[in-house]
Amino acid sequence: MVEFDLSEDQEMMRELAREFANEELIPNAEKWDREGIFPEEAIDEARSLGLLNCTIPADYGGLGLSFLDEAIINEELGRGDPGFATITGVTMLACHPLIYGGSEEQKKEYLGRVCQGKISAYCVTEPGCGSDVKSIETTAVLDGEHYIINGSKMWIGGAGYADWFYVLARTGKDKGHDSLSGFIVESNMEGVEVGKKEEKMGQRSSDTRGVAFRNVRIPKENIIGREGDGWLQAMISFDRSRPMLAAHALGNARGAMEEAWRYANERESFGKSIFEHQSIAFMLADMSTKIECARLLSYKAASKLDAGERATLESAHAKRFAADMGMEVTTDAVQIFGGYGYSEEFPAARRMRGAKIYQIFGGTSQIQRLIISRESNKEYVQSVN
Fold first, then answer.
1. Which of 180, 226, 227, 279 qualifies as a FRET site for 250, CA 20 to 30 Å off?
2. Domains and CATH numbers, the chain
């Protein structure tokens, strides 16, 4: 029998995260977005409440929670403000390669810093390649006791506030994935150049910048694992982070639906609330169904990770559906608000702008479909042979 009930601890975590979202995120989200404020105080408070660093093992200062716990908490953070959820999520994305392949010394030092309040950033995407990770051009050349890193990264979340970066670079001459390696690069090292903050469509509170590496010399001990391990580190990080991103998207969609539902009961048209018009009631019903589906996919992917199993297909399903669903639901919320939905004075427009990025970062919806088709085909071929 499949069990859908949350444990008492999970119910308490969800309630804590929901209360934090209601009291700290929702009241401030519009100001943070409008003024591009990076909410450091709110981040510190979320950490003190035990809402961040969920899946970092307790041995290194983290909470040691499950991936399902992380999804539950992050749905509430996404409902509060998707920009805030992204800010805190990118740090975990950078930590996953270290959790998976780092040495004990690396984990204690750099995961420890994160758990003490530092921010890390995941440097994989480049100006000339995003989805095609195998084509990155950043290089890391061994020179005695150091690697020298040269290259540029783009669209790096949290870059302006990061204490350290996970950097994927090419250590071999061939262009395949076997020549990719992962490194820890501290943000204050000579030759690290952090660019200007990008002016984005949505989630303006989250800090996104380019990062250039100009002959950056790092100790060779800063390689994570061995040369050639970078591709697997990056892919595992995507698998582990996509249920969380799906939770962000469904949380934002849920927030938009709740706001639209409230408005539909307050707004009157032709002598009755617009909710009493079937066209609006059915839109809200469809929104609710889509959100329920996204939650189930996110929880399933997280649960498979918790079982220690490979969850590439399930994580892609969750990320693809939740990202596309989030765009659909927030667009419908704008429609329900009518002219007010097109105004920045109401949250619907901000929710819609904030939803779009989930179809792009962490692997585009098109890349998720590619993964789904390939993984599903493997299962089909195995089933008929």
1. 279
2. 8-115 (1.10.540.10), 119-228 (2.40.110.10), 231-384 (1.20.140.10)
